[in-house]
Amino acid sequence: MSHIAIVSASVGAGHDGAAAELGRRLTAAGYRVDTHDLVELLPRPFGALLSHGYQRQVQSAPWLWHATASTFDRALPAAAAARATRTGDRRILAAVRPDTVAVISTYPLASQALGRLRRSGQLAVPVITYLTDPYVHRTWIADGVDATLAVHAATAAQARRLGARTVRLVAPAVAPGFRPAAGTDEVRTARRRFRLPPTGPLALIVAGSLGLGRPERTATDVLATGLATPVVACGRYRTLHQRLTAVPGPVPLGWTDEMPTLMRAVDVVIHNAGGLTSLEALATGLPTITYRPLAGHGRANAATLERAGIIPWVRDVEQLDGALRAALGRPDRRHDTRSAPDPAATIVGLLDRRPVTRVHVPDRQRWLRPRGTGGLSARRPPTRSHQ
């Protein structure tokens, strides 16, 4: 049985969530899947900076994170970020089993590292990037990556403009549990499960697994409208949960592995990042609003989703009342991704082996199917083994 390696990063839960669902689907398709954390593959100081530095900047100095994200969204700084991942090359290559047929990235710097190794010939199997964000930051697109998967058409267009090769539009890698409630009985059962108010509209405020941003301010603003009771998913941020417990009105919830059930208990989702949570909300059929987006990638995602007509971006408290009224008046706002192919099926299709021809591309050589077949295959093994 062939292996597929997935490289994610424990920087929030969105990248890992997409990796887990892709792994589940590829396992069902008959592959053995190994998932790796880039944070652990890099030397300890760099890995710690990657995971903790992001969280500290977003929470304590959002202006600094916005400046950092904007800086590395340019060609030269993005190239510098790619070079910084060289310190993890040996561990990355050692993590790829001999019978691996592809490596998938769900994190930008993983794409940079894998693309470089692929381009240099040290990695002999196709590399595929699954974009977890609506906005395509420049570090997502790496020379040497064979194919890029995008969930939104606007995202796919951005990836192509930045030079991504073999871009495919796919359905979200969202767990099958995220679906609309079957009826009012299921909604009541879900509310009892989380000890939520049995009646009245509920607004689920989500700030990722780390509780980043200022979700308590969002809860206060929702309360002020008088339109819904704010339910705040605090993730693993215990301090946030403690603060909200002392405030009358909001309903704070700690970390839960039952997010599909929680979403079926509420009437609207308010998010601030635009990643996996927004896809889960749309799959559940919930009206979704972007409010107080995180600096950097959060605002970029918000702008992309709004321009594409997928999720509105409410920019201030004065607009929140009208946005909530509109959302609660249209209870089913699913973004139609049913016509898009399954991402695992797309990956399998790209790896389907057929006669190959050698195609020379500047600064890289790859073994590809003849034009028009749409598939990828491994290039010849490099002369220097990394085993």
Automatic annotation (TrEMBL):
Chain intervals for the UniProt region annotation (Disordered): 363-387
Residue ranges of domain Diacylglycerol glucosyltransferase N-terminal in the record: 15-165
GO terms, biological process: glycolipid biosynthetic process
Keywords, in A-Z order: Glycosyltransferase, Transferase
Entry GO MF terms: hexosyltransferase activity
A GO CC term attached to the entry: membrane
Family per record: Belongs to the glycosyltransferase 28 family.
Protein name, per record: Diacylglycerol glucosyltransferase N-terminal domain-containing protein
Biological source species: Actinocatenispora comari
